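Help wanted!
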Amino acid sequence: MQIVVDSHSWLLAAAGGVLIGSASALLLWWNGRIAGISGIFALLFLGQRSGADRLWRGLFLLGLIVGATLCSRLLATAPLDYRAADYPLLAASGLLVGVGTRMANGCTSGHGVCGLARFSRRSLLATLCFMSAAMLTVFAIRSLSA
Amino acid sequence: MKLKLFGALLSGLLFGAGLAMGGMTDPHKVLGFLDISGRWDPSLAFVMGCALLVTIPAFALARRRGAQPLGDERFHLPTQQRVDARLIIGSLLFGLGWGIAGLCPGPAIANLGAAPLAMLVFVSCMAAGMWLHDWLDALPSARGLHTRNHLS
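Answered by r_m:
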């Protein structure tokens, strides 16, 4: 293993982490809610939810898109380069992420950032599982395509 | 009510900005972080680490007796404690999907602005997967295997 040392991206990552943590703390202390994005998204269209409940979910996700777009503009981040040939893999990956996060009741934000902060045993196990599965998947794909 | 909507929007804006600043919205970077056998880019560990530095005290304070959020009568926190097969299998499936494209739910939705068409493919399939899960879960054969307990 070779470790990429890039202090500039470490600094941006740390600042991004503080922003994400602050956003989660804000949603917790303002709305009393966990900033778990798979759950916020899923209950936008699943389950018996009131209009007001769906509205805050929609606004959070709208903010997510606008915030990321503005920040990428400001930092002049390189644009994403997707082609139509990538779509089948994106579709398969999206389907797995959807089934998996719904079954496990959370993703990187809900289990990773909020669950670990609550010292939840479930979230710790979930995080270990999805991290190792993702690392194994990348390892398998890169070994096969090398 | 209006207060809560403003809180949600503001939190979303900050969250999205954090994802973009931290590099989470760049799938190449995410895959570089997950690739521990090759040239490992550890920077995304700082994202989670620094986020936890803020969320750990925030949740600790919320657990104190009498604590109440600004715009709601109570904190809506998960109550489920039991580790079950659904948690493990679901997380493994999620990890498999995450490792294929380098996208987890937050960054995929956040990128709807940067790459609308590609992310629409991902996000609509993600929604379909969630719906499919709930549909399978509601089938009579799935009943009794577990108790449903989703975040309220």
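OP: Thanks! One thing I noticed: Helices of chain B lie at 2-22, 27-34, 43-62, 85-101, 105-110, 116-138.
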